[in-house]
Description:
Shape: globular
CATH class of the largest domain: Alpha Beta
Distance between the termini: 34 Å
CATH superfamily of the largest domain: Periplasmic binding protein-like II
Number of helices: 11
Structural class: alpha/beta
Largest sheet: 9 strands, mixed
CATH architecture of the largest domain: 3-Layer(aba) Sandwich
Oligomer: single chain
Number of strands: 13
Helix content: 25-40%
Mean pLDDT: 92
Amino acid sequence: MRFIQAVWLLVALASSPGLGLRLATTTSVYDSGLLDRLLPVFERATGVRVEVLAVGTGQALRLAERKDVDAVLVHAPDLEGEALERGIIAQPFCLAQNSFLLVGPKGDPARIREAGDVLEALRRIARAQAPFVSRGDRSGTHLKELELWRKAGLTPEGGWYLESGAGMGQTLVLAAEKGAYTLSDLATYLTVGRKRGLEALYRREDPLLLNQYTYYLVPQGAKAEEAEALRRFLATEEAARLVEGLQVEGTPLFKPLRGRCIISRGGGR
């Protein structure tokens, strides 16, 4: 497995036919270490080399549209549904789930620990004008954040609302530096955010906070057979055990779905 930084995309991907299977995935997947468990096993079993590009879901799907990648692993059901309808991606396999949560400084100036639901938690942040860092990058996490603000009846703006324009790990680092709140996926919070002193201030079972990761093939991709081979591997019990076994201090980062989707494309259950 090799990680390719986004800045080298046009040189390293589009112009290099000798590369292996090209997989675009989210920064939250990459930062979690999930691919470090899955891909070496796949590569040893098949001899297929996987080139990983970690970007937001929106950018991953744009790469798929341009055929710059052969497969994607993403987590934005609305965007995925649109891409499926347009034939940009195909053959979804729901790989894993975890949840989103609101994290922030230990002092919790907006008192979101006491909120009755996640929408009330966001309203408390807005009323207090407590610093909040948004991804601002059209990633799955950013789109989920915007959905929650919309459902809360709010349009966040002003000096308290910041945009990182970066991946999840970097956004958590910035939130810690600013003493700010942010929306994170569970895996990246446990691997990055908690180490930076951020607290899990709103983490509850809530359908609005479900986070599903789905693998898709890119039709007519340059490495279509290899992408299908990876799909078959991800559907195995061995892959499910590897997903389930990824833990931080005894806490699983993901729950394997084994192809059983919990969120439909379009965002509904």
